[in-house]
């Protein structure tokens, strides 16, 4: 019978129940024992035991409390300490649990359980610290610093950067959002300080990226109007950041988010209303006087990027139609602005060109004639009061200028629409009237319109009869340099309407050179403003169709440098003209192949045959390229590539790619291109643009990658982006030269690091490289084999050689037997590395062709020490392959004699590697017991 007043008996009874698994009864016994136990030490043991019961029952608070009572009696009670550690860990109090197990490990340093728990808790605490460090208190702390007037600038910058970085990760973004972040960010914007606004906008961008629900919530909390007012601020960086925020919101709302939203799906998914609000607000910004030039640029950019369809196969162009109905007149208003007149919209140098590009994209996105007719009707409606304007009235005159300038904008955008308007009754008369006006600004606008409207050969011939006399008249009479230069460009453009066809020159011999000389003079004059000097480049873009002009221009280093400086300026409307001029100087435009037979036929049938200028021959082009490089063309191109995407159109990108390809033709010039950042600049051109542009840029990249140190040519992570364009050149529809250069480039990259090799394999380059190893063309076959030689250290490549049912290994062995030494070196090198790492291949090698032994012997006897060394290494790998039959077969053949002869030869620096390898083979054969060491008898 159990004595209810005997603590020892009750404790023992509790122990029995515990061992039997009846935890509730054990707790009952221990609880009764505690009530009657007078002895402190005994009490501690009972508490400790009850703590174990509570751990089993998952009552962690009770378990920790009982263990603590035992520890109070004996601070070194190791069992109680460990039990409390277990309970505290379950309660999430990791640092307290860590302290307990630390004590346990100190008391019993060799106990594995304690050490393992100590290590695990240590790691968990580190991980938790990392997250708590970026948690709520930290977020609040950052806002406190940013909103504190007293805080120093350095601390504020640090806090702002931390906030931006935190918002880029989903967990951090959610934390800022949950901790009242959006109202606090609005407070930052309200300070009006540019650096605070920037930090807030960039943080919001991070929070809106890839999370539809959060993007929607933020859009509603901040409001579209507020976001537009931030983008309207006259600060380029803020406008760009706000544009990026709008883009992040748009991407998240239009499907950048792949999350499952469950019950809230319906609330989150209908973003169409918000997207329409954003679109209308952006259109409102386009023609608003309250918006800065930078803000207007970004509003136009957002429309350009998000309104027209990205993929033509999509049927729905409703966004474009909606934009045309609600905003076309606003965009036309921007095109028609004349900054010299009072009361105009704030613009940057680039605004009107961005607007023209947007008009072009919208027009291109239309799918049928009625849609195009509607577009033209709206433009016509906007222009129509021109013809009725009373020129004597000043405000009407301003309206006329505005209308003519709008047509200029259309001529730079959807040319057909502008062209149709120019042909309308009264428009030409308007231009003539403006040319005769006393006001400089009227003449300037009219001359620009004349220039833009003579873009097609057919139109130009009409202007040569009508416009030339007008322009010549203005050129002679005007005292204003800005008008003079524009009139000259008009004459240049008309004078070069025949392109580079030497026989179609419009002007008298020598007059184009005179015009060009005048353009170069203006270009080099720093007293003239950028906008006007830009027209000098426009003139040269036309005149450099003439080879005499190109040659004179590239010899004028001052003029070249002046053009490159302008290309780097903020005014990016200049890019197209600079690109055209460089295309002409390097002759990198598309040249149609002239077949002699067809020329004879054309002459016979009295057809026109284009003639090539003597200075357009190869050696002249090479000289021009050298001069351009010397004047710093590469750094100018590198800056041009970074221009705003709307201005850097697909066509301009293609032109820049063509220029780069022409510049990198000579291997000796590639170092200069790399040194000035050309390698880096080519990557975006190779990844996006027209198909032809991407191929040209990829080809230039391949040329640079084939002979440069990748770390210098493509610094940082960019080197991994080079591989895809190179692999795209391997396709059979590319020409042989491109295949060859791409293989050379990949060979160089593959020889550089394992990470690059893995990336080449991931980009599915192997099948193409292998197919070129079977190619009949010697150079292609060698380049592919060299590339493979550099790739064989990759596990995936080795596995392809180990697979059965293919001729990969056989091809490599047979290539070792070819006569071409370069090919032999590459194939033998690949084979030497493969047989070193994959012993199975040593045996497989003997089964792929009956000629294997003969080929191997030829390698070992080769006069080229490099090839000989590779051959002997293959033999060593075979002796070392754990296949005793194979080793025996080799030593029983003539190979032993070959190795002995080589091994006994005198040391020679040229052949030392081969001699040492042969001696190593003989030592291996001795170790295997296949030959006996030779001993001299005394």
From TrEMBL:
| Species, as recorded | Takifugu rubripes
The record's annotation in SUPFAM superfamilies points to: ARM repeat, TPR-like
Where are this protein's TPR repeats?
A: 7-40
Question: Has UniProt tagged this entry with the keyword DNA-binding?
Answer: no
Q: Which domain of life is it from?
A: Eukaryota
Domain spans labelled UNC-45/Cro1/She4 central: 301-494
Q: Listed GO cellular component terms?
A: A band; perinuclear region of cytoplasm; Z disc
Q: Which PROSITE patterns match?
A: TPR
**Record's PANTHER family?**
FI21225P1, PROTEIN UNC-45 HOMOLOG B
What is the name listed in the Swiss-Prot or TrEMBL entry for this protein? Answer: Protein unc-45 homolog B
User: Which key words are in the record?
Assistant: Chaperone, Cytoplasm, Developmental protein, Differentiation, Myogenesis, Repeat, TPR repeat
InterPro entries membership: ARM-like (IPR011989), ARM-type_fold (IPR016024), TPR-like_helical_dom_sf (IPR011990), TPR_rpt (IPR019734), UCS_central_dom (IPR024660)
Q: Which GO terms describe its biological process?
A: cardiac muscle tissue development; lens development in camera-type eye; myofibril assembly; skeletal muscle tissue development
């Amino acid at each position: 019978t159990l004595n209810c007043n005997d603590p020892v008996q009750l404790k023992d009874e509790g122990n029995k129940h515990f061992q039997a698994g009846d935890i509730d009864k054990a707790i009952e016994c221990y609880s009764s024992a505690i009530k009657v136990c007078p002895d402190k030490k005994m009490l501690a043991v009972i508490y400790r035991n009850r703590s174990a019961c509570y751990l089993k029952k998952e009552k962690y608070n009770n378990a920790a409390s009982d263990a603590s009572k035992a520890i109070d009696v004996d601070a070194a009670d190791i069992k109680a300490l460990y039990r409390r550690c277990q309970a505290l860990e379950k309660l999430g109090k990791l640092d307290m649990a860590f302290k307990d197990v630390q004590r346990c490990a100190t008391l019993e340093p060799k106990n594995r359980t304690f050490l393992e728990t100590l290590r695990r808790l240590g790691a968990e605490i580190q991980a938790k610290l990392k997250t708590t460090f970026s948690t709520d208190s930290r977020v609040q702390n950052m806002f406190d610093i940013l909103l504190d007037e007293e805080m120093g600038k350095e601390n504020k910058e640090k806090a702002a950067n931390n906030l931006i970085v935190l918002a880029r990760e989903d967990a951090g973004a959610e934390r800022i959002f949950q901790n009242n972040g959006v109202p606090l960010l609005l407070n930052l914007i309200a300070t009006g300080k540019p650096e605070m606004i920037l930090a807030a906008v960039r943080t919001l961008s991070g929070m809106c990226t890839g999370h539809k629900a959060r993007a929607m919530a933020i859009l509603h909390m901040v409001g579209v109007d507020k976001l537009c007012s931030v983008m309207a601020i006259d600060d380029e960086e803020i406008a760009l950041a706000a544009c990026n925020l709008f883009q992040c919101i748009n991407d998240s709302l239009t499907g950048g988010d792949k999350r499952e939203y469950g019950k809230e799906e319906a609330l989150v998914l209908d973003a169409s209303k918000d997207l329409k609000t954003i679109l209308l607000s952006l259109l409102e910004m386009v023609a608003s006087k309250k918006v800065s030039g930078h803000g207007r640029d970004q509003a136009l950019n957002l429309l350009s990027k998000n309104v027209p369809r990205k993929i033509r196969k999509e049927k729905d162009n409703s966004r474009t139609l909606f934009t045309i109905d609600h905003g076309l007149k606003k965009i036309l208003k921007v095109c028609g602005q004349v900054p010299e007149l009072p009361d105009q919209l704030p613009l940057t140098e680039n605004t009107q060109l961005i607007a023209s590009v947007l008009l072009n994209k919208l027009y291109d996105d239309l799918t049928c004639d009625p849609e195009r007719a509607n577009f033209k009707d709206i433009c016509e409606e906007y222009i129509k009061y021109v013809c009725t304007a009373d020129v004597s009235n000043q405000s009407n005159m301003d309206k006329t200028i505005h209308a003519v300038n709008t047509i200029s904008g259309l001529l730079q955008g959807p040319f057909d629409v502008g062209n149709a308007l120019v042909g309308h009754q009264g428009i030409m008369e308007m231009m003539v009237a403006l040319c005769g006006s006393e006001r400089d600004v009227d003449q300037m606008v009219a001359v620009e319109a004349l220039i833009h409207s003579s873009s097609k050969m057919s139109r130009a011939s009409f202007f040569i009869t009508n416009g030339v006399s007008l322009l010549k008249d203005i050129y002679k009479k005007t005292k204003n340099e800005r008008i003079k230069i524009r009139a000259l460009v008009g004459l240049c453009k008309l004078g070069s309407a025949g392109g580079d066809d030497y026989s179609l020159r419009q002007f008298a011999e020598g007059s184009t050179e005179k015009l060009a000389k005048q353009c170069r003079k203006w270009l080099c004059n720093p007293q003239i403003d950028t906008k006007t000097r830009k027209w000098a480049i426009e003139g040269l873009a036309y005149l450099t169709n003439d080879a005499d002009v190109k040659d004179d221009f590239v010899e004028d280093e001052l003029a070249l440098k002046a053009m490159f400086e302008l290309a780097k300026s903020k005014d990016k409307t200049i890019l197209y003209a600079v690109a055209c001029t460089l295309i002409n100087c390097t002759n990198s435009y598309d040249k149609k192949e002239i077949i002699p037979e067809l020329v004879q036929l054309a002459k016979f049938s009295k057809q026109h045959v284009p003639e090539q200028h003597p200075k357009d021959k190869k050696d002249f082009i090479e000289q021009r390229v050298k001069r351009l490089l010397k004047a710093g063309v590469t750094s100018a191109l590198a800056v041009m590539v970074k221009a705003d995407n709307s201005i850097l159109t697909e066509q301009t990108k293609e032109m820049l790619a063509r220029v780069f390809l022409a510049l990198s033709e000579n291997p000796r010039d590639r170092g200069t291109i790399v040194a000035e950042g050309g390698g880096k600049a080519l990557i975006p051109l190779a990844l996006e643009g027209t198909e032809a542009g991407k191929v040209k840029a990829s080809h230039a990249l391949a040329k640079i990658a084939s002979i440069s140190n990748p770390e210098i040519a493509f610094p940082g992570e960019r080197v991994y982006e080079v591989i895809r364009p190179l692999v795209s050149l391997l396709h059979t529809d590319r020409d042989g030269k491109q295949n060859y250069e791409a293989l050379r480039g990949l060979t160089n990259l593959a020889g550089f690091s394992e990470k690059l090799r893995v990336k080449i394999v991931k980009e599915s380059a192997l099948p193409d490289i292998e197919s070129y190893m079977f190619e009949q063309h010697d150079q292609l076959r060698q380049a592919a084999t060299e590339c493979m030689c550099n790739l064989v250290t990759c596990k995936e490549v080795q596995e392809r050689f180990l697979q059965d049912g293919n001729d990969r290994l056989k091809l490599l062995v047979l290539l070792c037997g070819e006569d071409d030494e370069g090919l032999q070196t590459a194939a033998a090198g690949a084979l030497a590395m493969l047989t070193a790492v994959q012993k199975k291949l040593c045996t497989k090698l003997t089964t792929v062709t009956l000629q294997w032994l003969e080929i191997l012997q030829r390698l070992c006897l080769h006069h080229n020490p490099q090839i000989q060394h590779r051959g002997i290494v293959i033999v060593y790998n075979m002796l070392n392959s754990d296949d005793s039959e194979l080793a025996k077969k080799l030593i029983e053949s003539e190979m032993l004699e070959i190795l002995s002869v080589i091994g006994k030869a005198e040391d020679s620096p040229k052949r030392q590697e081969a001699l040492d390898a042969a001696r190593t083979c003989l030592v291996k054969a001795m170790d295997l017991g296949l030959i006996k060491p030779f001993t001299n008898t005394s």
